[in-house]
């Protein structure tokens, strides 16, 4: 039997549009909110999940996406986060192939398009949840609440908390998970077309499970659609209840077992700075802080003004006493939830009961994997995990708006339009901030001034753009806020090393490796500083410590080779550089240093062999060409030497040293006019080029003598 439209649906100040027009409107508003992020950069976590993820490259075997985690690490590795999202990684790989490389525009456009589609599909989901499953005589599903479902979908489309999922490419996981979540739910509803036993379809239920599995392969919380379907369909239809529950339990069990087998028995390892509440020894305080986190998530849904890319490292100080005023937020949260639950259970209005019940289910259930209830998560707050939960919030909010319009009929259009416009404006503003790391990181300073990671990322961004002096200030603040922040210590130590403030650099790096003994990069940088301080024995030990904790560390072998060269331990230096090139065949500096060292020690034949070997791997490396050309010149292989010099200059025509050495070659070879030409070019590029002016003077005297002889 077809239900009549809900009374409050008539009072929603929106026109009654057809299905197609409603979807277009919702999709367009979603597009308006986030379109300005289409040409943004790769930011924040995009670096690890996309830029540095070898699973995206066509040269990487496609099978790797099924054995590696979301970040490209093998699932069996101790460092793996166990985030298994192969379908999401597959879409990244498709973006890479279609764009011919890492061009962010294609990645962003697909994210925006996915959000538009999801927002449009929310109309169908909300129509079922509010108005129920009803059909006309031809078996077509009817939307009994066109205005309310449209309003809820509009609120979902423009909510600013979605910015991280849409403008941040890594948020693709949440978008795809939500899309397959919707497909799974709608397929499951399709199985009950007509609402009686005769139209129950096992095939549609099976399709729903496959779509649930796809959602789970995009992001772990996709499994929660099974809970939602069970709650929703028990209220919507009563056909074959035992059969449906059996299928849900069996399908859910299979999916959870498969996920457990893939992840293994060991949970991912997180640190206290990632989620400090989960490390609280007092169980009561742990529960209190978890609930405080929930209240902050709820506040982000209610007032999405204070948004931040990262909420860890002191951004949310722990509640350590019952006298902390923030406990009020817990009481408010649970008062609101209990009030909504009581309204849903006690009301005689079927529409109200269904709307509030489904809203609460959709609000809470998708959030459960991030709640710390079942396992420790690696964050305090993550706006992207609220993507699906926002649908539940918008469902409840749409009811509140509709009910308010029944009571307060004046200015209701202005009020609703104002709500939508404020959200659109905030979404567009936040989307703009996500376009670059500079704007994203600096926007967080006012939201989380106590977050050491925010200051660290601002400093790192400044350093990457060449502003190291400004970066020092933010690195120091990061270390002040979190005295055990080893990455900030390491980066600050590197800058101080470049500024020749070696003593403080050594102190910082020593502290970093003391806090985290397996920090290989800090050990290597400490070795470089100790080498500069002439502490050669300590430097050697630091390099070997770095290699101990990261066995495949070509840069460390390179720096170890430099140390041995300074100590005239030539064989050890050559072995270290050879190790560097074996681990990283395109390590140009290691190859070049081997050629130069062999040249300087008179091993010209071996230097020639190494140089030629290097150019097979790096055929366009002008520095190696230059070094090999010098060797060939000393071996009196003038023609070959000339060829390498000219090739090097073709690649780097402004190299004064190359012009100068080519001039020396021509000088020895007797091609004095060419020697004169390249001496002059070298001096033009660098008037203080070592030895060039003296050689040029010698050539001029020789040319003058020849001129006199001819005269």
Structure description:
The chain has 711 residues and is an all-alpha fold. The chain is built from 31 helices and no strands. Helix 13 runs antiparallel to helix 14 and helix 25 packs antiparallel against helix 26. The chain is elongated. The termini are far apart. Mean pLDDT is 88; it is low at 1-5. Residues 266-338 form the DUF1736 domain. Pathway: Protein modification; protein glycosylation. It is found in: Endoplasmic reticulum; Membrane. This is dolichyl-phosphate-mannose--protein mannosyltransferase.
Contiguous uncertain segments of 5+ residues: 1-5
Range of strand content: under 5%
Structural class: mainly alpha
Based on Cα principal axes, name the global outline: elongated
Q: Count the helices. How many? A: 31
Summarize the main sheet: none
Q: How would you sum up this structure in a few lines?
A:
With 711 residues, this protein is mainly α. 65% of the residues lie in helices and 0% in strands. The protein is elongated, with a radius of gyration of 33 Å.
């Amino acid at each position: 039997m077809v239900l009549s439209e809900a009374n409050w649906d008539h009072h929603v100040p929106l026109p009654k549009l057809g299905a197609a027009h409603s979807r277009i409107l919702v999709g367009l508003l979603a597009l308006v909110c986030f379109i300005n992020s289409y040409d943004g950069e790769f930011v924040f976590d995009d670096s690890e999940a996309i830029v540095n993820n070898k699973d995206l490259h066509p040269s990487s075997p496609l099978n790797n996406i099924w054995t590696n985690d979301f970040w490209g690490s093998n699932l069996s590795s101790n460092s793996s986060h166990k985030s298994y999202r192969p379908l999401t990684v597959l879409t990244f790989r498709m973006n890479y192939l279609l764009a011919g490389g890492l061009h962010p525009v294609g990645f962003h456009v697909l994210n925006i398009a996915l959000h538009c589609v999801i927002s449009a599909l929310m109309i169908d989901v909300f129509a079922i949840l509010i108005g129920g499953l009803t059909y006309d005589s031809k078996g077509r599903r009817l939307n009994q609440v066109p205005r309310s479902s449209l309003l809820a979908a509009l609120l979902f489309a423009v909510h600013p908390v979605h910015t991280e999922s849409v403008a941040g490419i890594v948020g693709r996981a949440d978008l795809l998970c939500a899309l397959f979540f919707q497909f799974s739910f709608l397929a499951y509803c399709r199985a009950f077309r007509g609402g009686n036993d005769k139209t129950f379809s096992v095939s549609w239920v099976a399709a729903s499970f496959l779509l649930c599995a796809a959602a789970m392969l995009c992001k772990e919380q996709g499994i929660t659609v099974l809970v939602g379907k069970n709650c929703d369909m028990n209220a919507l239809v009563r056909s074959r209840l035992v059969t449906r529950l059996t299928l849900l339990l069996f399908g859910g069990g299979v999916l959870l077992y498969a996920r457990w087998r893939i992840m293994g028995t060991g949970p991912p390892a997180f640190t206290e700075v990632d989620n400090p509440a989960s490390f609280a020894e007092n169980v009561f305080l742990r529960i209190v802080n978890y609930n405080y986190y929930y209240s902050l998530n709820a506040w982000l849904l209610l007032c999405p003004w204070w948004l931040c890319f990262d909420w860890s490292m002191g951004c949310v100080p722990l509640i350590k006493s019952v006298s902390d005023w923030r406990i009020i937020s817990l009481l408010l949260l649970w008062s609101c939830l209990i009030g909504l639950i009581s309204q849903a259970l006690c009301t005689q209005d079927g529409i109200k009961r269904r709307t509030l019940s489904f809203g609460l289910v959709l609000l809470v259930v998708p959030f459960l994997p991030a709640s710390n209830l079942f396992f420790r998560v690696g964050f305090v707050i993550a706006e992207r995990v609220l993507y699906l939960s926002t649908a539940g919030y918008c469902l409840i909010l749409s009811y509140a708006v509709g009910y308010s319009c029944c009571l307060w009929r004046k200015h209701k259009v202005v009020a609703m339009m104002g709500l939508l416009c404020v959200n659109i404006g905030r979404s567009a503003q936040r989307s703009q901030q996500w376009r670059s790391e500079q704007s994203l990181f600096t926007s967080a300073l006012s939201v989380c001034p106590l977050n050491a990671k925010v200051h660290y990322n601002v400093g790192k961004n400044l350093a990457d753009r060449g502003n190291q002096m400004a970066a020092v200030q933010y690195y120091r603040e990061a270390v002040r806020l979190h005295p055990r922040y080893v990455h900030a210590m390491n980066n600050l130590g590197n800058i101080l090393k470049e500024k020749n403030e070696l003593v403080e650099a050594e102190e910082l790096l020593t502290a970093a490796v003391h806090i985290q003994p397996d920090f290989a990069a800090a050990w290597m940088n400490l070795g470089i500083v100790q080498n500069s301080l002439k502490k050669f024995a300590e430097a050697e030990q630091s390099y070997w410590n770095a290699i101990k904790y990261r066995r495949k560390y070509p840069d460390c072998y390179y720096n170890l080779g430099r140390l041995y060269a300074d100590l005239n331990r030539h064989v050890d230096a050559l072995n270290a550089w050879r190790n560097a090139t074996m681990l990283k065949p395109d390590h140009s500096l290691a190859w070049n240093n081997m050629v130069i060292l062999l040249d300087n020690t008179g091993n010209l034949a071996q230097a020639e062999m190494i140089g030629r070997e290097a150019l097979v791997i790096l055929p366009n490396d002008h520095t190696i060409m230059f070094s090999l050309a010098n060797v060939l010149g000393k071996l009196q292989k003038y023609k070959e030497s000339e060829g390498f010099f000219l090739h090097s200059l073709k690649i780097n025509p402004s190299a004064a040293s190359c012009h100068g050495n080519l001039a020396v070659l021509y000088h020895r070879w007797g091609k004095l006019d060419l020697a004169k030409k390249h001496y002059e070019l070298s001096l033009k590029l660098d008037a203080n080029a070592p030895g060039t002016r003296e050689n040029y003077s010698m050539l001029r005297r020789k040319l003058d003598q020849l001129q006199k002889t001819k005269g």
